[in-house]
Design a protein that fits this description.
mainly alpha
Length: 107
């Protein structure tokens, strides 16, 4: 089980991943992703939270999607970007894209 001190760290990954991936996909800022693609980003956040919770063997308390979307509104002007995959990351990226589930199916 998690404590209130430990769970915020796993929440950082979904907001960065979800908003950066979808922002790059839609060529949008964090605020534009939240406003114009809210259902898509919320679905991805739920997927990332579920995968992280399963891997870490923790139970989310609920409300994570709402908290992350509210945070996104507070940093609405932030740009989004995804680093290009370099040669050293190509094998890993190729392997991950072959998975039928998970967030990379969006890429």
């Amino acid at each position: 089980m998690y404590t209130s001190l430990l769970f915020p760290l796993p929440l950082r990954l979904p907001i960065c991943s979800a908003y950066m991936l979808l922002g790059a996909k839609h060529k949008a800022t964090v605020g534009q992703v939240e406003a114009q693609h809210k259902e898509e980003v919320s679905e991805l956040i739920r997927e990332l939270i579920a995968a992280g919770a399963e891997e870490l063997r923790v139970t989310p308390v609920g409300g994570e999607v709402e908290r992350l979307n509210a945070y996104a509104r507070s940093v609405a002007h932030f740009p989004t970007a995804v680093k290009e995959v370099g040669a050293e990351d190509a094998d890993l990226a190729s392997e991950m894209r072959t998975l039928s589930h998970g967030p990379l199916r969006l890429c």
